[in-house]
Design goal:
Blueprint: H1 2-17, H2 19-25, H3 30-39, H4 57-70, H5 72-88, H6 93-100, E1 108-121, E2 124-134, E3 142-150, E4 156-165, E5 170-172, E6 186-196, E7 200-202, H7 203-207, H8 226-253, H9 270-303, H10 309-336, H11 347-359, H12 366-377
C-alpha cells in the first residue's frame, strides 16, 4: 500500500496537467485511468485472493485526498471506483469469480439508488431500470446497481444491490454539471437483463455485517461496515479538493498586491489572515476525524472485536461534518480571494465548484446523518443502511 501511495505521488503532476482536459471532456482522460490502473490504485481495497492489496483503508483515503488535491474529478472517480472492489468482496464467492475471472484490473461503477425493478425468475431476477450519477461508468466493465423488490399493492419489500456486466448495460452521455465535470457520471440503462441469484445481495444483510462474501474474504477489511467505508469515500475527495486549493491559495496569494481598498500586499490584510486560519483549521479537523474513525474501525476488525454502534454513528457524524467543514473552508477562500476567483479555470473557482458538487451526494446529507447520531445519543432506535 505504501508503494502505491509513492507511485501515485509520482504521477500527480501529469494528472494535474490533464485536469482541464477532464473538465472539457466531461470524463477522465484515458491516460489518467491507465496510470491509476497500472499503479494499482483501484485495487487498494480489493480482496488479495483476486490480486488486490487488501490493505489499511486509511491509506486508501489518503491516496484519494492527494489525487483530489490536484484534480477533484480524478480523485472522485478513484474514490468511488476504488471502493467498489471492497463491496464486491462482500458478494458471494461465485460473483467475485465472475468479476475477476479475466484479471484483477477490472473497473466497477455504481448507482445505488433503488431505481431498478426486479422480476423473479428461475435462478435469479430480470432487471430493468435507468440510473443516474454513475461516476466513471465509461471506463467500467461492471456496474453495481440499486434494485427494489415490490410486493403486493406496489409497496417496497426489500432493497438490493446487483452486479451487472458491461454487455448488459448501456451508458447514456448526459453528464453536464457545474462541478466535478470530469467524473463522467452519466446515466446507465438496463433493459430486461437476467441477473443470477449469486450477483444479488440484500442491503440490510450488508449493513448488518452479514455479507456472504465474508465466507471467503475473512480479512479484517471485510468486517467493516458499508456505512463507514462507502460514505467516507464520498467525503474524502471533497476534503482533498479543498486541501489542495488551500495550498495553492496560500502559495499564490503570498505575492499578490491588491488593486482595490487602497492597495497593499494581500498577506498583510487581517481579514485574509483570519480566513486562512479558519480554513486551515476546518481542513485539519476534517482529516483528523476521518482518519481517527476509520483507524478505530479497522483496529476493531483486526482484533475481531464487535464494532459498537456508538463508533459507527460517530463515524457517520464526522463524515458529513468533514464535508461541511471542507465546503465552509473553500467558501472562505473563494470569498477572500476577491474577483480573481470568478475566472474560469482558476484553481479556487474549480475547487469551489467541485466541493459544492460533491457535497450534494446523498451520503453527504448532513441533516439526515446528524439526526441519526442524535437518535443514538437519546437511545432511540436507529435503522439506516448507511450506518
Amino acid at each position: 500500500m505504501t508503494d502505491v501511495l509513492e507511485r501515485i505521488r509520482e504521477v500527480l503532476p501529469a494528472i494535474a496537467e490533464r485536469a482541464r482536459d477532464a473538465e472539457e471532456s466531461r470524463r477522465l482522460p484515458e491516460e489518467t485511468v491507465a496510470d491509476l490502473v497500472s499503479i494499482g490504485a483501484f485495487r487498494m481495497l480489493q480482496p488479495a485472493r483476486f490480486g488486490g492489496l487488501e490493505g489499511d483503508p486509511a491509506q486508501f483515503y489518503e491516496a484519494v485526498r492527494e489525487v483530489s488535491a490536484v484534480c477533484g474529478s480524478t480523485g472522485w472517480v478513484l474514490s468511488v471506483l476504488g471502493v467498489h472492489p471492497w463491496h464486491v468482496g462482500l458478494f458471494p464467492g461465485e460473483a467475485q469469480e465472475d468479476v475477476w475471472a479475466g484479471g484483477p484490473d477490472v473497473l466497477i461503477c455504481s448507482s445505488y439508488a433503488p431505481i431498478g425493478r426486479l422480476r423473479a425468475v428461475d435462478g435469479g431476477c430480470v432487471l430493468t431500470g435507468r440510473w443516474s450519477f454513475a461516476s466513471g461508468c465509461d471506463h467500467a466493465s461492471w456496474a453495481l446497481l440499486g434494485g427494489l423488490v415490490v410486493g403486493d399493492g406496489g409497496r417496497p419489500v426489500d432493497f438490493l444491490s446487483v452486479l451487472v456486466p458491461r454487455e448488459d448495460f448501456q451508458v447514456l452521455d448526459v453528464w453536464d454539471p457545474v462541478g466535478l465535470r470530469g467524473t463522467g457520471s452519466n446515466d446507465v440503462v438496463v433493459d430486461k437483463a437476467f441477473v443470477p441469484d449469486h450477483r444479488i445481495v440484500r442491503n440490510y444483510d450488508i449493513a448488518q455485517l452479514r455479507g456472504p462474501g465474508r465466507a471467503v474474504n475473512r480479512g479484517p477489511l471485510y468486517a467493516m461496515p458499508f456505512g463507514a467505508v462507502f460514505t467516507t469515500a464520498v467525503a474524502a475527495p471533497v476534503v482533498g479538493v479543498v486541501a489542495g486549493s488551500y495550498a495553492n491559495y496560500v502559495s499564490t496569494m503570498r505575492d499578490r498586491v491588491r488593486l482595490s481598498l487602497g492597495g497593499g500586499r494581500f498577506v498583510e490584510d487581517q481579514g485574509a489572515q483570519v480566513a486562512v486560519a479558519r480554513a486551515a483549521s476546518e481542513i485539519d479537523a476534517a482529516v483528523l476525524q476521518l482518519d481517527r474513525n476509520i483507524t478505530e474501525l479497522y483496529e476493531h476488525a483486526l482484533r475481531g472485536a464487535e464494532i459498537p454502534a456508538e463508533l459507527r454513528l460517530r463515524t457517520r457524524r464526522d463524515q458529513v461534518r468533514a464535508t461541511e467543514r471542507a465546503v465552509g473552508a473553500i467558501d472562505l477562500l473563494f470569498q477572500s480571494a476577491g474577483g480573481n476567483s470568478l475566472r474560469r479555470g482558476n484553481p479556487v473557482e474549480r475547487a469551489w465548484r467541485d466541493a459544492h458538487a460533491g457535497s450534494v451526494h446523498v451520503a453527504n446529507d448532513a441533516q439526515r446523518a446528524l439526526a441519526l447520531y442524535g437518535k443514538g445519543e437519546f437511545d432511540l432506535p436507529v435503522e439506516d443502511t448507511l450506518v
